[in-house]
Amino acid sequence: MNMLAMQGGTRRSIATNFLRIFSMPCLRRAYVFKSLPLCAERGHKQDLIPHNVEHFAVPHAPIPLSAEVEKLKEFIASSSRLVVLTGAGCSTESGIPDYRSPRGAYSTGFKPMTHQEFMKAETSQQRYWFRSFIGWHAFAENTVPNAAHHALARLEERGYVRSLLTQNVDRLHQRAGSRDVLEMHGTTHEVLCMSCGARRCRYDYQDQLAELNPMAQEALYEEQQAAPTNQEDAREKLLIVGRSARHQQRPDGDVELSPNAEFEVEFVL
């Protein structure tokens, strides 16, 4: 089966004021919440707000003026049924790179695979899924919602925010507690068969890929065992991995591989 990470979403009629937030310095400064319980999905660390945020994924941004923070607070307080649009900048403090900042994916030469390229050749499908297989652990299991995700969830809980429209595929909004989320670009957490339309949990498909590709699984295991043991080492490792010539973590959950990456041609789907 040709399996592709879920793309797109259903249309939904939404009324209301519109709040567009791609990078959220005001919310980062204004709101910090306690951790939520351990996520029900498999493999997640406890969802604490990350503290080691000064790494490669976070672009430089000026500290917001107090007047700007107050203006945002007044706007939210005087509104109801807000719809919030979030993009890649919302997840950078969780360690997921964005696209357009100076150190973002596009700035480092990232060229995403198109749907047409994926469907055209089996070698493209192998490369796509090898990249996704290698990148999944760091993207889905080692990231946690940050203060912006928690702030938006709390605003929804208190009745200020009605819905979230997100361009992100990481599901960190849901893990933070947001309930009404429309994933405009789909999600990496579900997989769709392009032949019969069957859907599968991404975790289950990761297990299947590991069974079918023991050499790739062994390489991934060795990389995971080399994980750092404290925050200082973690920050250094993120800097190294994020700029590695071997592979780079990307905003859509996979990694960018060198042309000579091993296992690529032999990767079984």
From TrEMBL:
**Segments forming domain Deacetylase sirtuin-type:** 62-269
Question: This chain belongs to which protein, by name?
Answer: NAD-dependent protein deacetylase srt2
**InterPro entries xref list:** DHS-like_NAD/FAD-binding_dom, NAD-dep_sirtuin_deacylases, Sirtuin, Ssirtuin_cat_dom
The GO molecular function terms of this record are:
histone deacetylase activity, NAD-dependent; NAD+ binding
Which superkingdom, per the lineage? Eukaryota
Q: Name one Pfam family in it.
A: SIR2
Native organism: Cymbomonas tetramitiformis
Q: What UniProt keywords are attached to this protein's entry?
A: NAD, Transferase
